[in-house]
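Record type: monomer structure entry
Structure origin: computed from sequence
Chain ID: A
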Amino acid sequence: MPDRLPCLAVTAPGLAPLAGRELRAIGITPHAVAAEGVSFSASPAEVYAANLWLRTATRVVVRVASFRAESFAELERHARRVGWDRYITAGTWVRIRVTCRKSRLYHSDAVAERIAGAVRRAGGVPVLEPDRAPVTGPATDGSSGQLVVVRFFRDECTVSIDSSGALLHRRGYRQETAKAPLRETLAAAVLMASGWEGQGPLLDPLCGSGTIVIEGALLARRRAPGLSRNFAFMQWPQFDAPAWDAMKAAARDQERAAAPVAIHGSDRDAGAMAASLGNATRAGVRDDIHFATCSISAIEPPPGPGWLVTNPPYGVRVGDRDRLRNLYAQLGQVARAKCPGWTVALVSGNRMLTRQTRLPLEAEIRTTNGGLPVELVRGVA
């Protein structure tokens, strides 16, 4: 395997600058920040570290080939030259994901067939035949399959190997959800965009299944988000298991025993609170978070100033927009009355509703949540 690998930290729209900041924090210098993510070069160990530490990225892929192909013959010739044996272990089965735009080779299934043929023909890389485990088979948890991502754009083909396996938001703790759950990566992003880094109290008065406060506790404790899961790179033929074990041990050694600040999560829905407790327990941060079942008006913030960070309903999937106006107005009133001087950050899916808070909130990031366009807005109560 080469000493340096061209990589891309794939992110949701708008989150690439945050992922770039995270890469710098672990000693990796980004090359460029684009809509699809952050490009960088990395040693194999740095690929491990990126997967272990990135909180806002979706996955980390390694760019293994880039070439121009206007015919299937050209595609097959280039595909045979890829060093598949560096990334695919005997007995592994491969998923191939293809997108084609503005290219002569526009049939994604036909492209996938050619790539699959090149993988099968690669010396020393026995890929299971389609009748045993399809090369374009279903997703796995990253321990029994390898995803190959092929992208054609204007006849330029980029072939990438996924190093992550299951998407990076799957930390392993969120097994119980409330209505309209927030992905862990977006919860981490809204915390980072709010400016909160564990330096003051954190409050989520609409915490649902607890993702924001749990991600906050993990961040405050300096817990590596990928510490308790497996990754696709662990199945690569040249995977360095001792180096990976040492990296995880170092991560555990620098972790705090407890969050150094007060973290409060509340919700009026008892079922949501039960989910929060279960998720926090699985994440190992149950003792770091004060949970309460109560309405917004009944919250008791810890001594501040601090950060109020939450994901209120948008009126698309949960609740009616007209009825939600009162909720947002109440949120603003409570923030001004009980959290004066606090930073307020919301995941906003409806500007009209957000204006009902009458708080001076400005958009920091525009992204998506569950396919819906949202903004991460911030201001001071």
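Annotation 1: The chain has two domains: 5-162, 184-221+256-380.
Annotation 2: Residues 184-221+256-380 form a domain with the Rossmann fold fold (CATH 3.40.50.150).
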